[in-house]
Each structure stands twice: as structure tokens, then as C-alpha cells.
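Take a protein:
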Amino acid sequence: MMMLTKRNLIPFAVVAMAIVTICSCGGKEKRVPFDSGDSTSNVLQDKTVYGVCGDGTAMHTLQIITDLGDTVTFDIAAAVDNNKVFGGLQAGDRIAVVPGTDKNTAVCVINQTSLLGNWVMPNPLDGSAEVGFSIKEGGVVEGIEQSSIIYKTWRLLNGQLEVVSERESGGGIEDIALYNIIKLTADSLIIKDAEDIFEYGRQQTKKEHSDIKLEEASSEDFKI
């Protein structure tokens, strides 16, 4: 797994220096919702439509049953042409849609179900271990092998991934980082901040030794 950047970068929140601070939280509500878009902050208004992918989804149309219970069909041809459909479209998966000027046209589609999971890359300091983060339901995000960072919340905001975290010795000051999603598949996540691009792979489950079954020896095995 290689980092797609021209410089020797330390990836997303591996150590405190790696986090790009977008702004200080100040009096902002610390918790942010998972996917309703009803942030208490007035800084950015989320125009994203959230819901579940419907059975009526086709190559250039997306049917979504919104969280409000409405069934809406979006034209996603432009999003497909611009490579702005991330994570695939599977009936039953949670989907985030950023509408265009025409509210029935989608400019960006993100499969939230595909986004969930453990995302890692080799430690850029020595390559000795995998480091990264775990994106969970309910806006929960946790670090993987990163003791210096305390992750708080994540959400999608107008097609971007927002991550709120705190440095272990940061005096309670929260960092809010925004990332553009470049690629999202079953096993790959590439995100970009204002300067750098970071590539992650889905963490593989380690197989237990107990999975290996040995055949029992018989008396015939010992005959010369």
C-alpha cells in the first residue's frame, strides 16, 4: 500500500502533527450526528440527503428511501461520469446523496455502509505495524494503534468526510479535519485534505491457528 503523495507524509492522524486543523471547536457542540445533517454549528449547512438504497436503482438512476420516509429518485449520470459515486450501490445499504442545483440530480453519492470498517496503512515511521482508524455507526470513530490521538466523531458533510479528534496532551482542544473522498471500494479508501492524499486498505482479519486441521495418523503411516 503506497501513499499517493510526492512528499514523505505522515498519514491522517497517525501522530498529532498529521492532523490538519481546519478550525477550533470553540463553543461548538462537541458531538455531531451520524447522518442526519442537523449540526448545531452554523458554519456549514449540510445539504446531503440520507437514506437507504432502494430496489429501483439502476445504472444512471438512484432510488433512495430517505430518513424522512420519502421515496426519491435521483439522476446520477453526472456523478457517474465524474467518478463521484463512491462505494457502489447496493439495495439496503445506507446512502448519502449530495444534490445539485436541480434537486433531482446528484453530484455526489457515497455508500455509508461501505465506508464503515477498519482502515489501515503501514506505519510511515518504520513500517513495523498497521495504523489507521475505525469508522463505526452512530458517528463513532476510533484510532487503530494510535495512542496519541483521541478520536471523537465522524460524519459526512456535503460529500466530505469530517473527523473530530483531540490530541492526548492537547488540553481539550478539538481538531476538525475535512477530507475529500477520492476512492472508496470494498477494500480501498483514498482521502485528500487541503494538501495531501492518503491511501488506506481495509484491515484484514487475522486467521487463527486453530483453523488449520491436521489429519490423524494411522498405523499404515508408520510402516516401512
Observations:
- Residues 34 and 138 are 5 Å apart (CA to CA).
- The radius of gyration is 21 Å.
- The chain is about 5% helix and 40% strand.
